[in-house]
Amino acid sequence: MRADSFHRVKNMVAVTLVVATTLLSCKDDIPLSEISSTEELPTQKIDNMTVVQYRKGITAYIVDAPLMERYTDNQAPYDVFPSGIVMRGYTPEGLLETRIRANYAKHVKKPDEEIWEAHGNVVINNYINGDRIETDTLFWNRLSKRIYTHSWVKITTVDLFMQGYGMESDEMARNAVIQNPFDSYAIVRRDSTEIPYIDTANFIGPLLPQLK
């Protein structure tokens, strides 16, 4: 081998070693949390999603979301709705009964379980009862047809206001019950005048004078 060819090969080997060493050094400096994994990337994205579920030919549920991301490279595949979600539930006659909205949602479906999670400014309206439920986190078990939360919750009905921690109801929010209530009162209507009466069992504070 000629001398100039030998030097070129030697220089190429040296450059390769330097590049390899640099790459290894950089890899050591990268936090593990910043290293991409296929399990962290959605396998499907859907913009402006609308899903309609029917019951005997009549609309049962409608789900609207600006964005849905599906992750299937996990042991438990799931869908997330990072830009918010609106869910509507209808009566067997096709009338809108319940509406749920949230800033973020997650849906996990397993062979023996199907759970929806809603987070951030969760508002549930039952238009037939006139009830409004507000909380920060809500779970919906599709198999048991129950909704529940362990967080703070506020319920406003036609003649009642109450708040507390923990709530459970049927999936249409017809019979919501707060598990640990406080600061609750009823609204009594007389001659178009609303008069609040404090629930002394759950609230410590000044009582309103009774009207004679």
Task: Using the coordinates above, name the CATH class of the largest domain.
Answer: Mainly Beta
On the 0 to 100 scale, the average pLDDT is 80
Tell me, briefly, the overall form: globular
Assign the CATH topology of the largest domain. Answer: lipopolysaccharide transport protein A fold
- Count of distinct strands: 12
Biggest sheet, strands in spatial order?
2-3-6-7-5-4
For the termini, the CA-CA separation is: 116 Å
Order of helices and strands: HEEEEEEEEEEEE
| Unreliable stretches | 13-36, 195-212
Structural class: mainly beta
Can you tell me the number of structural domains? Answer: 2
Q: What is the second-level CATH architecture of the largest domain?
A: Sandwich
What's the CATH superfamily of the largest domain, by name?
Lipopolysaccharide (LPS) transport protein A like domain
Helical residues, percent: 10-25%
Strand content: over 45%
Largest sheet composition: 6 strands, antiparallel, barrel
**Continuous helix count:** 1
Determine Rg (CA atoms, Å): 28 Å
Describe the structure.
By secondary structure, the protein is mainly beta. It folds into two domains: 1-35; 85-198, lipopolysaccharide transport protein A fold (Sandwich), CATH 2.60.450. It is built from one helix and twelve strands. The protein has one helix at 3-29, and strands spanning 44-55, 58-71, 78-81, 85-90, 96-102, 104-110, 113-126, 131-141, 146-156, 160-170, 177-190, 193-198. The chain has a six-stranded antiparallel β-barrel. β9 and β10 form a beta hairpin. The longest helix is centred in the N-terminal third of the chain and has 27 residues, at 3-29. It starts with a helix and ends in a 14-residue tail after the last strand. Mean pLDDT is 80; it is low at 13-36 and 195-212.
